[in-house]
Amino acid sequence: MSLKTFHICFLTISSILMIYVGSWSYIMWDYYANNAYISYLVFSILSLIGLIVYGRYFFKNYKNI
User: Fold this and answer.
1) CA nearest 59: which of 16, 20, 18, 11?
2) Which residues of 28-60 are buried (b: 16+ CB within 10 A; e: fewer)?
3) Is the full-model pTM beyond 0.70?
4) What confidence tier does 10 reach under pLDDT thresholds 50, 70, 90?
5) Are 19 and 47 within 8 A, CB to CB?
6) 22 vs 44: CA distance, rounded Å
């Protein structure tokens, strides 16, 4: 498995996981009204943004390798 293939798989699976965790935490917050679920939601959104930024950075620099 090449480095580029690994990063594509890693970023795809991690992004799907962050979307799932974000939707799960929103549903749980709506049901239980516990503020801990809001922190999980914020963490998952920030992680998703970080994954997107990292992916763009990697693929931009991978062209030069």
Assistant:
1) 11
2) bbeeeeeeebeebbeebeebbeebeeebeeeee
3) yes
4) very high
5) no
6) 5
